[in-house]
Each structure stands twice: as structure tokens, then as C-alpha cells.
Amino acid sequence: MDDRTFDALARFVAAPRTRRQLVRAFGGSLLAGLVGSRRAGAAACPSGVVCSDRCCPDASDICLGGQCTSCPSGVVCSDRCCAVGESCQDGACTATAVPEPSGPCPPGSRECDGVCYPGGCCTDADCGPCLTCGADHVCRGCDAARCQTCGGTGTCVSSCTAGQVCQNGSCCTPAACQPGQCGRVPDACGGPLDCGNCPAGQCLICAGGTCVQACPAPQVCHDGLCCTPKTCQAGQCGRVPDGCGGTLTCDDCPPGQTCHQGSCCTPTTCRAGQCGRVADDCGGTLDCGGCGDGERCVGGTCCDVAHACGAVCCDADQCLSCNSAGTCVSRCLADEHCIGSDTCACDDGYVLCVTPFGPACKFNCCPDRSGRCCASAHIDARGNCCCPGSKLDASGECTAGTCGVDCSAAKCVG
Length: 414
Hints:
By secondary structure, this protein is mainly beta. It contains 2 helices and 39 strands. The strands form 19 sheets. Strands 9-11-10 form a 3-stranded antiparallel sheet, with no helix packed on it. It has a two-stranded antiparallel ribbon with strand order 1-2. The longest helix has 22 residues, at 19-40.
């Protein structure tokens, strides 16, 4: 080493120092100074202590965290200087027990189990009510930062009531979830509040702790889904559904029409054959008056008395008539069909035969009593064929006589 460095080292050793200071100086700051001096090259450093490539002003300085620092205690712990009376234990500055094998403890210390501690207590019993003996052997009162107060039993208790919490030394009542809140929100006391999910079926999403509608305008929520309401269409009137659970108010109908079930409707007028009160097809009724002679009003229709059957009118165009049971049945016989206007006709392949016992449809021809085909469609009461052009009188006799075999057809089928 050069003369300047040697002189600095000599001055440092000559000064009154504890062994700890000497060890720390030689192990840390001084050696760092020496090394730093070599790094600094020709740079002059009267103190002999170099820190972060610069010279500390005093030879008693040490280098902590890249800064020149004075440490009166000479105890460095985790890059910091401990106070006088402290030692470094597990990386932390801790009050040092002062063993006093004989004689009283120095002022400010207290003997605990034969060891002097810089403090005023050994156990909580050495302190007064609501005081506790800390690890540094100093009596301390209730912790106001934790909202503690002295209770009636002389112990520290919380000054907060049930349901409150301590926040920054003050008792605070946490807020409860409000309608419309969701997710995690502040409870107003420094803690979180879980308000859960938004109600289902209402098209809601959680945004910033608040339930908001997920449906963009003009959509609305209907049955848990976003829905676009309909608008009034041509021909609609009054209040009609909008398709999304709401209603629309549409315009009135033009003159001559009425609003029926949300649509404009033109009422009908009384038609021929209608009677009494009948529907106008638009939700209203018409008064169509009474019927003529020989008719009866049945179900809003004038009905021939012969076809009136209770509350219905048997349809003459279907050859229907009312039976004894009050039911409309066909008046056409077997092998007949209705051709309208209450008229029955024989089916294909059959001919109409007139007898004293009434008309009857017979297959192919009108037979006499022997089964032979008659040239005429009329047969008297004895089963004889009437002469052509003959008819039956009231007694069932042929008006122009019978013709027997001579006027029968050559062939009879059936």
C-alpha cells in the first residue's frame, strides 16, 4: 500500500475503538476504502474510506447501501446501522441483553432472570392495567391502531361493537350489498363484499359491480332473451301485442271500418234469408228482422217450417228433413241421391217407378208382378203395367188401362 493509505490506517487504529468496530472496519468499510483507493487510482482520499467510487469525509464513516454513513453503535445489520444497545439477530436489530453478574442493573435497565434488559418490565405483571410487556421489555398500552381500549377487567378489548371492524384506528360498519350490485365491491371499511351474480332471466350482466341491461336499444328483455319489439303494421289498430311482452297503440280505422282484435274490419250487412240478430264478422251484431209466412227464424236463418228442426234448419239443398228425434236426416231412399232443392233422384242404372205405394227406384226398369219390364214407369195396385202415357188415379188404377204382356219390353233385366 502507498504511504497515504498507510497513514490513514494508522490514524484509524490509533483512535479509541471497540473490537467490534475494528472488525467491521477492517472487514467492510476500511477494506472497501482500500480497494476503492486502488480502483480510484491516483484519486486522493484523506479519510481512507471509499464508497461507490467516492471518498467519505471521515475516517470513522462506513459504507452502507452505497452511502457514507456514521454508525455510533458500530453494529451494522442487513445494510443498516443498529442503535446503541442493540445487536443483530436473524437479520434484525434487537435489544441486547446486558449480563450483570454482580451489582445492580444500569439505569434504564431491568434484571430479568439474572440478565439486565434495557427496559422497564420482564412480564405483563410488571406493567399496570391494560399494559403489556413487549419483547423490548417496555410496557405498552392498548393498541389504538387496532381500536383497542382498556376494559373493566384491566385487559385490552376491542372498542368496536358486533358487526364492526377496525379500519385505520376507527370502528367501521361494513356496508351490505344493495339491490343492483353484483360481484366483488368495496364494503366501505377497506374490505371486499361479494354480492354474487345478477338475477337470472332478466338479461343482466355485471359491469363494475352493478347489474346492467345486456340488451342494446331498442331491444328489451323478454322471457330472459333480448327481443326487438314490433311496430304497427298496415291494417292494425288499437292496442296490439309488440311480440316482446308489451303492447302497441296503433291508429284508428278509416270510416266504415271498426277495430276488431287489433285489425281494421268492414262489418257485413244482412243477407237474404238472414233473420234475427246475427254476427257482423267484426265482433258486433246485426238485426236482420223476422221471416215470411211459413218460415221460422232458426240460428239467424229463415227456415221453411217443414225443415225447422229444433235450433237448426235442415238444409233443403242437401235433401235433409227433421225426423221424430229432432235430427236432420236425408229424405232420399236407398238407391237415391240428392240433386238439390230438396229433390232426390235415382242413382245411375236405376229408374224411377210410380206405384200406388209411392215412388221407388228400381234397377234397369219398372217390373210388373211377374218381374217383367214394363214399357211404362207406372204400375197399378195389382202389379200390372199401365199402358204408355197412362198414370195412376187416386185409387191406384191406370188411367189408360193396363197393357199386360203385349206392352211389356222384350227383355227384363234384374
